[in-house]
Structures are given as C-alpha cells and as structure tokens.
Amino acid sequence: MQIWHDNMPYGKIAERKGHQGWMKQEGSYFIFPGGGTMFPDGAERYIEKLTQYVPLKSGLLRTGLDMGCGVASFGGFLLKENIITLSFAPRDSHKSQIQFALERGIPAFLLMMGTRRLPFPAQSFDFVHCSRCLIPFTAYNGSYLIEVDRLLRPGGYLIISGPPVQWKEQEKEWGELQAMTRSLCYELIIVDGNTAIWKKPAKASCLPNQNESGLDLCSTNDDPDEAWYFKLKECVSKVSLVEEIAVGSIDKWPDRLSKPSARASLMDDGANLFEADTQKWSKRVSYYKMSLGVKLGTAHIRNVMDMNAFFGGLATAVASDPVWVMNVVPAQKPLTLGVIYDRGLIGVYHDWCEPFSTYPRTYDLIHADGINSLITDPKSGKSRCDLFDVMLEMDRILRPEGTTVIRDSPDVIEKAVHVAQSIRWIAQVHDSEPESGSTEKILVATKTFWKVPLTSK
Ligand SMILES: C[S@@+](CC[C@H](N)C(=O)[O-])C[C@H]1O[C@@H](n2cnc3c(N)ncnc32)[C@H](O)[C@@H]1O
C-alpha cells in the first residue's frame, strides 16, 4: 500500500509513528506497513489473533466500526475478509490521519466521540473495535459505552485493545468497564493480554434484572435511530427489533445485500420498495457504465459518495466493482440508514446545507440523486440553502479529474450546469435511461485540474 508523497506532503505521522509501522516515507511515496499502536507487528497478525475469538472470516460479520483508527490499517486489512469497516478519528495531534486513510482508498470519516451521538443509526455495526483509541468508556456516567451499545448490533462483538484493559494505573476504569458490560449482559469472551472481547446479547436488554452499575433504560420517547445533532444520553436505548436483526439471524454476506431486512419490512410497503429500488439502480448503473462513460468498475474510481442513498441501491449495484461507497442519508429524509447497514453497507447521516466531515479531494465519484431535494425543507418546500453552495462543497470533496453525476428535473439541471461551468467542471447533460419514461436529466461532470495563477508582485 503506497500513496504519492506530493499528494499529501505531511510527514509528521511518518516521523512520530514510523517505529510502530503506521507509515513511512520511501522516495516519492508514503508506504503503509500496516502497523498500529497496539499492533506494531502489523494488522494482519493482530486480525489472526482476534479470529481465534471473533468469527471475522465466516461471512457472519460484515460491518465494523473502528473508533480512533489512526491511518485505518485495521479496517484496510479487513477488506480482504469482505468486511467493511467505517474507521473514524478526529484531526488532533495525529494530524491528517483520516486524509491518509482516504488517500489509501480505505473507508474513513472525520469524527470524534465527544458530546453528541455519532451520526449512525442504532444496532448497525456487527462489531465495534477500539485499539488504544483513548475514549474513556466509563466516564460521564458511562455515556460513551452506552453510545457504543446503541450502535452495536445484537449478537455483535465489542473488541477493546489497550487501556484500560489490564492496564497499569487504570485498574479502577478496568473494573468499571467490566461492571458496566456485566450490567448490559455482555458475555465476556476473552481477556487476552491487553485485549478484551465481549459479545452483546442477541435478545432484548436484560438491564432491569441485573444492574450493578445503576444504568437506566431510556423512556419510550427516545428514538435510538436519531443521531443528528443529538446529545449523548446516559440511559440505554430501548429498541423494537432485536432478534430479527441480530448477528446470526441476519443473512451472511453477500446474501444480506439483496434481502430486505426486518427493518426494511417494518416500513410502509418496505419490502416492495426495497426490491424496486434494487432493480432501478441496477439498470441505472449499467446505463452509466455502458452509455454515459462513467468509469465505475475501473481503477479510476475507488472512493464513492452517494449523497442521497435511501436504501443503498446505488452501492448495491456497484458491490462487485473495486469501490467502496459512503451512503449518506440526509437528516431531513426518512431514516433509512439502518436498512443500509442491515444489507452490509456503511454510511452516515448528514445535512447537505452544511460541510461534509471529510478532507478536500477525498472522493473519486460523487452521486447526487435529486439534488434539489437535499436542500428543500420537506414541510415548507422552500430551499434551506443555495444549490451553488452544495456544488461548491462537492467540488471541495472531489479529487481533480473526479466525476460527479447529478440527477434532477430539467430546470434544476439547467441551474446545475450553470454552476458547474462557473467552477470549471466539464459538464455534459444526458437524458435519463430510455426505458424509464422519465423526463429527468443527468448531468455528468469532470472536475478539471487547475490552480489559481500566482500573482507576480
Ligand atoms: C494511539 S492512537 C491509536 C490508533 C490506532 N487505533 C492504532 O491502534 O494504531 C489513538 C487514536 O484515537 C483517536 N482518538 C482520540 N480521542 C478520540 C475520540 N474522543 N474519539 C475518536 N477518536 C479519538 C486519535 O485521533 C488516534 O487516532
């Protein structure tokens, strides 16, 4: 794994973490030997060790969350096992770690565990991992561990390597972590050195019966799927579906990709909508590849963003291409992101009237289906922000020579073409798929490689 040094000429991590094998500079490249703070001998050997206790190579586990990921080597090496890990970390003393992860083509997101819920639905991740992620799980009345519990799928695994697990001078925190996991009825699978692994029950919470940590269940008003600008809670969320979507009940990867989960079927006409959406995107993606020259399926496109993902139909249609897709479900739209996770795909909630939490030039293809709907208030029908600002944000995120595909009515596409030209994209407008009978237009644009000329004094 290597990237051009000049694409991101920031040497701090290589200098400070080179001895742990995070990354090194070699000539014109940065190389990534695969090491980390808790796995200096490489993520591959660490994953082998975990596989003794966690079924990482069986298809049972597909979606992971790596908290405090460094340059995301753990998630990167799991891709070989057909596991997709959403790796996250903030920009802190570890500098542009997430930008390096994305430059490597590994799914990653700029985020920190702070005061708000993480922007994911409840019961999404088949496992949650932290290797020396520095998150104090039991502080603040346990609200960080409670957040992890919200995100973990029933029957899923929690893996913590490093402090406080059997860590000198963190005996108190280690005791508290064990007590809290017992209160949540997690099964302690193993404590192996500084690695502890638990399995979350695949049944409803046992909290009211067994609770040495004094944890409370949230009231019925709490919607565990709400996670956009939502303060962390100190109570454990109640959920309606448990056994149906647990690890072991849900189909193995890749079968789960094409089956509507119980969560999809709960929605109005959910199972039919799911099937229709899957068919629609399969046709659309063939049209993009065969007729519109979109280079999906080639080495030109690796990091893909679907700005309006609904059930993840686009990501499903490209699942056998060498890409990964960030499925974004707008916070103002129905909360369908749980269904996307049930399929074995990943994504986040976001409001497109705000900047997206990533570095510049980190995606190769950005797709916006119904771009105007992303900025329209669903109640009043009025625009909440300007199309120009959204497209400028897309331009920031897009790699030079990357592609955007925007679909909407002819009048919205006309406006979008105007913006595209003003930001120097090369734009072409196409009719929608011939058999669709739709009047919708498709704008396919390429971001050109240009620099603001230096002014001479
Ligand atoms: C010592 S490094 C470990 C990195 C990686 N997990 C490994 O084992 O090599 C600590 C990581 O935790 C991240 N981190 C620290 N506090 C965090 C927080 N509150 N939320 C998310 N990540 C955090 C840091 O940015 C960094 O990526």
Automatic annotation (TrEMBL):
A GO molecular function assigned to this protein is: methyltransferase activity
GO biological processes: methylation
Give the membrane topology, semicolon-separated if more than one. Single-pass membrane protein; Single-pass type II membrane protein
Keywords attached to this Swiss-Prot or TrEMBL record, sorted alphabetically, are: Glycoprotein, Methyltransferase, Signal-anchor, Transferase, Transmembrane
Q: Read off the InterPro entries from this record.
A: Put_SAM_MeTrfase, SAM-dependent_MTases_sf
Predominant location category:
membrane
| Highest rank taxon of the organism | Eukaryota
Tell me the Pfam families matching this sequence. Answer: Methyltransf_29
Q: What class of enzyme is it?
A: transferase
Got a GO cellular component term for this one? endomembrane system
Q: What is its EC number?
A: 2.1.1.-
The record's listing under SUPFAM superfamilies reads:
S-adenosyl-L-methionine-dependent methyltransferases (SSF53335)
Query: What subcellular locations does the record give?
Result: Endomembrane system; Membrane
Q: Which family does it belong to?
A: Belongs to the methyltransferase superfamily.
Indicate what this protein is called per its UniProt record.
Methyltransferase
Q: Which organism is it from?
A: Brachypodium distachyon
